TrEMBL record:
Biased segments, Basic residues type: 204-214
Family annotation (SUPFAM superfamilies): Acyl-CoA N-acyltransferases (Nat)
Keywords: Acyltransferase, Transferase, Ubl conjugation pathway
Comp. bias (Low complexity): 172-186, 228-243
One GO molecular-function entry: arginyl-tRNA--protein transferase activity
Composition bias, Basic and acidic residues: 153-168
PANTHER family hit by this protein: ARGININE-TRNA-PROTEIN TRANSFERASE 1, ARGINYL-TRNA--PROTEIN TRANSFERASE 1
Organism lineage string: Eukaryota, Metazoa, Ecdysozoa, Arthropoda, Crustacea
Organism (species): Hyalella azteca (Amphipod)
Protein name: Arginyl-tRNA--protein transferase 1
Domain N-end aminoacyl transferase N-terminal: 18-88
């Protein structure tokens, strides 16, 4: 059986929890579900509907009710442009590496990174995963092992076959060419018997996908020759690589993100910085060998920056929230060389001292920031901002390999909490409308949030959430007694249960009909 399936359990826990931003004791509301396993496509769809994971717990703020509405925010990486303050951070790092200069940053600790708020993890996630205890670790293999033996009778729609989002940016001709070459290289040669199949003496028929790639490549080539059309001006399809070529011709052009990150230091630098991307789930050899060092940095960060007690930042908590992941490793055709899934991006000083770790997910359309922690001794380097810029550069690099991947997701933007507004400094950024799940430019959205902390961001009053309405709950995919089936079949087996119908319908509206009909909802 194809192991690209997802299993979730909707908790529907909607009690008020402590808020780490406004410090309210019981005004933080969200919907939640435990993810035993998730495909990267399903999780991409979930974060595009306002969900976010903390370890294996996924939660979605109840926007109209919670004390501090949290809007999903993302930046278009190919179009990203540096601000003066961001350039200063990069130059400060380069000066430190070249000369060992230690100049204290004026940046506050809460401006250090996308998750630099006053609370490490959402309280609802902490309580949920602590209640699971060891059972949370044991359920997954029990379910998935049996699923491998139980064929799913109905053909499931795969999330990867969905049409791309309208706002998806088309890659450059070079990236399309690399995609095509990878596709051709993956084809298997077959011997055709006389009278059967294609005539081996005639040219092979090209697949529709290859033809589409060729047409797109030709179109993009024409656009480049004509100096690009107005539709590509705001989101350049050429990407960072062509921008670098253009600056070679214009020495007066401002330096790009890549220019500053890769700037030649000196022949004899005081320090070296190595950035390593290691897969955390399933754990790679690089992750395993650095596990103790990574946890030690996390513990110093939590106690110093967040003021946590040692009991609150135990090894089990670090593993539960920052190592354990429901995301399945995936290596799509023509995808990025790293593959997709959950990773740690590690920052090694002089090849031997780990000073910072970024926890990230690499998904079909984005790099999603999960958490960041660093050694407080190096806070003068503004490592939070520096790592965000590194993650943007990683997104741009992966996008050159895999044209779908063009976005950097920074978690939640919380306008009602002023110290969390710095996420909007990465331009151009967009917020997710909580009612239509369409992406809206940040500047006009901020004006709405200045008036009301909860707001519909889309101007068009007739636009609706088509994924969350008119759902036939009989078609929802469920898992009952380790057997996958449609909810309609489940109701025939178990009898009518109006209360459960309400829960299942609520779940489907929150995750969207595409996910509801392809993810398995675990039912008792």
């Amino acid at each position: 059986m194809d192991n690209q399936y997802s299993i979730v359990e909707y908790t529907r826990d909607h009690s008020g929890y402590r808020c780490g931003y406004c410090k309210s004791s019981n005004a933080n509301y969200s919907h939640g579900m435990h993810a035993y396993c998730l495909t990267v496509d399903h999780y991409q769809g979930l974060i595009d509907r306002g969900w976010r994971r903390s370890g294996s717990y996924c939660y979605k703020p109840t926007m109209h009710r919670t004390c501090c509405p949290a809007y999903t925010i993302r930046c278009h990486a190919p179009s990203f442009h540096l601000s003066k303050s961001q350039k200063k951070v990069l130059k400060r790092m380069n000066n430190f590496l070249a000369h060992g200069t230690r100049k204290q940053s004026s940046e506050s600790s809460t401006q250090q990174h996308c998750d630099g708020g006053s609370e490490s993890f959402p309280e609802v996630a902490v309580q949920h995963l602590e209640r699971l205890g060891s059972d949370g670790e044991e359920k997954k293999p029990q379910i998935t092992t049996l699923l491998d033996e139980v064929p799913l009778q109905e053909e499931r729609q795969k999330a990867s076959s969905r049409p791309p989002h309208e706002d998806q940016v088309v890659g450059s001709p070079s990236s399309l060419a690399s995609s095509e070459s990878s596709l051709n290289a993956s084809k298997k040669m077959k011997t055709v018997s006389p009278g059967l199949g294609a005539d081996p003496n005639k040219p092979a028929c090209r697949k529709a996908r290859v033809k589409r790639l060729e047409r797109r490549q030709a179109k993009l080539q024409r656009l480049q020759e004509n100096d690009a059309s107005s539709s590509t001006a705001s989101f350049p399809s050429s990407g960072p690589s062509s921008a670098i070529d253009a600056r070679k011709k214009d020495k007066n052009a401002p330096k790009s993100l890549e220019d500053l990150l890769n700037e030649s230091i000196t022949d004899s630098p005081a320090h070296t910085l190595e950035v390593r991307l290691v897969r955390s789930s399933p754990a790679s050899a690089g992750f395993k060998s650095s596990r103790d060092a990574s946890y030690a940095v996390y513990q110093r960060y939590q106690t110093s920056v967040h003021g946590d007690s040692e009991d609150r930042c135990r090894h089990v908590q670090w593993k539960r929230f920052l190592v354990t992941s429901p995301l399945k490793e995936q290596h799509p055709d023509a995808g990025p060389s790293s593959g997709l899934g959950s990773f740690h991006q590690q920052y090694w000083l002089d090849g031997e001292k780990l000073i910072a770790v970024a926890v990230i997910d690499i998904l079909p359309c984005c790099v999603s920031s999960v958490y960041f922690y660093y050694d407080p001794e190096y806070s003068f380097l503004s490592l939070g901002t520096y790592s965000s810029l590194r993650e943007l550069a990683l997104t741009r690099e992966l996008g050159r390999e895999y044209s779908r991947l063009a976005w950097y997701y920074m978690g939640f933007y919380i306008h009602s909490c002023p110290k969390m507004r710095y996420k909007g400094h990465y331009e151009p950024s967009f917020l997710l409308c909580p009612e239509t799940y369409s992406w809206c430019p940040l500047p006009p959205s901020v004006k709405k949030l200045d008036v009301n902390k909860y707001s519909r961001l889309v101007e068009n009053s007739s636009e609706e959430d088509t994924e969350g309405t008119n759902i036939d709950i009989d078609k929802i995919l469920v898992l009952h007694q380790r057997r996958p089936m449609r909810y309609g079949t489940f109701r025939e087996l178990k009898g009518a249960d109006e209360a459960l119908d309400v829960v299942v319908r609520e779940y489907a509206g929150l995750v969207g009909k595409t996910a509801a009909c392809t993810m398995m909802l675990s039912l008792p």
